Please model this.
Amino acid sequence: QYLSAASEKGWNVPQEVTSHLPLQKFPLLIENPDDMREKLKKKGIYLDDGWTGAVVCPRTVDQEATNYIAGSCPHAEQVARSILTLPTHPTMTKKQVKKLLETLQRIQNAECRMQNAE
Model:
């Protein structure tokens, strides 16, 4: 359901994601995912589980303590800065998925209207 919605709405999804690829979470690549998570949270949708936003997860881990050298994997760093993951767990109902997709679309539409007004 996420993949078809993303395709329909023109959302950026890694090209490796297909309907035949089982995922723990569905990745969307957007500008400022932390801001989107905050906006969704205000609508009662909680997506911040701590497993995004850093090359070495969770985000709260001291990256240097893991021997990760900043800049050594720029692609992973870019993905970490732009990933918004949508839940795919089996308890997620179609109604919940629909609400999430509709809310995400409304927020994005509002952001587009604000940018166009500037």
Observations:
- The helical segments are 2-9, 33-42, 74-82, 94-117.
- The mean pLDDT is 89.
